[in-house]
Automatic annotation (TrEMBL):
Transmembrane spans: 35-57, 69-93, 130-148, 173-192, 204-231, 237-262, 274-292, 298-317
InterPro entries xref list: K/Na/Ca-exchanger, NaCa_Exmemb, NCX_ion-bd_dom_sf
Keyword Membrane appears in the UniProt entry: yes
Membrane topology annotation: Multi-pass membrane protein
Subcellular location per the Swiss-Prot or TrEMBL entry: Membrane
Main location: membrane
Protein name as it appears in the record: Calcium/sodium antiporter
Species this protein is from: Shewanella sedimentimangrovi
Domain of life: Bacteria
Domain Sodium/calcium exchanger membrane region: start-end pairs: 5-145, 174-317
Keyword annotations of the record: Membrane, Transmembrane, Transmembrane helix
Pfam families in alphabetical order: Na_Ca_ex
């Protein structure tokens, strides 16, 4: 048991560290290649913050643990909104003024509904995984096109620019990129192995371990990014990290178990857990898009989100009590 805990903690620590180095190297390299900061923020940085989910989902799928992979995606999206955004809102009101975010949030809701349609029959097929991946590529193409052709001033662009490393020599950027690529799958394997051992010891299902320990662990990069964004008064970037990560999780990461290990899924994932993802995503859209001209998340919103997270975790563990 102690060895499994060590594997989980060590895997999580290396996963978060290597994801950060991967993003640092990739973003610095992209800047050196002359890519626009807004484009780097919408693609590389957003994908990088979801790198832990991606590698954990791939590892779990290759080991035949589809429910852990799907639980990781659904649980991460729930944790991003309720836990991560809830904790961030406690630091102070979070304002939203970016037009890009106001476009991305409905896209996040649409992607969530599409995933629900695919999971509803409790069977996740390779064709559905391919469709999700194609939708992700189409969305990325649209965002890239809009970022490179739009002439509107968006505060998210300035905030993204400030977060991308400057003056990093290309060889050093490539070194950190390679380090991240090597360590991410290794750390993901440690984390999954440790989580499986703990789950078996306590009699938890593959789905619940993905929804809880693994989901919260892989969401830590988003927590760090959101807290840093709010402390630097880069509110749009903080919300953007959550929205971008959730879109990436639903379209790209959720596609992996369908592509690698298609088959039957836990009925709870298709019901209880999907509806929780849909409800929290809709709540975020409601809070951000309909909170008046200021469009702010207040501290009390953060408290409510944290209470929802706590109640959901209690429900999950009670179901196995």
């Amino acid at each position: 048991m102690l060895f499994n805990i060590f594997l989980l903690v060590a895997g999580l620590a290396v996963l978060v560290w290597s994801a950060d180095k991967f993003v640092y190297g990739a973003a610095a390299f992209a800047r050196n290649m002359g890519l626009p900061p807004m484009l780097i923020g919408l693609t590389i940085v957003a994908m990088g913050s979801s790198a832990p989910e991606m590698f954990v989902a791939a590892t779990a799928s290759m080991e035949g643990m589809m429910d852990t992979a799907i639980g990781n995606v659904l649980g991460s999206n729930i944790a991003n909104i309720t836990l991560i955004l809830g904790l961030t809102a406690l630091l102070g009101a979070i304002g939203v003024s970016s037009q890009t975010l106001k476009r991305e949030i409905p896209l996040m809701l649409g992607a969530t509904v599409l995933a629900g349609v695919f999971l509803h029959d409790k069977l996740f097929t390779r064709t559905e995984g391919v469709i999700l991946l194609l939708m992700f590529l189409a969305l990325m193409a649209y965002l890239i096109w809009h970022a490179t052709t739009s002439k509107e001033q968006d505060p998210l662009a300035d905030e993204a620019d400030s977060e991308i490393p400057r003056d990093v020599p290309t060889p050093r950027a490539l070194m950190w990129l390679v380090v991240g690529i090597i360590l991410l799958p290794l750390a993901a394997n440690w984390m999954v192995e440790g989580a499986v051992g703990i789950a078996k010891f306590y009699g938890l299902s593959d789905l619940v371990i993905g929804l809880t320990i693994i989901a919260v662990g892989t969401s830590l990069p988003e927590l760090a990014a959101c807290v840093a964004g709010v402390l630097k008064k880069e509110d749009d970037l903080a919300i953007g990290n959550i929205v971008g990560s959730n879109i990436f999780n639903i379209l790209a990461v959720l596609a992996l178990p369908g592509l690698i290990a298609p088959g039957a899924i836990d009925a709870q994932a298709a019901g209880r857990d999907f509806y929780m993802v849909l409800a929290t995503s809709a709540a975020l859209a409601l809070l951000v898009l309909t909170t008046g001209r200021k469009r702010q998340l207040q501290r009390w919103h953060g408290v409510v989100l944290l209470l929802i997270f706590g109640a959901y975790q209690y429900l999950l563990f009670q179901s196995h009590a």
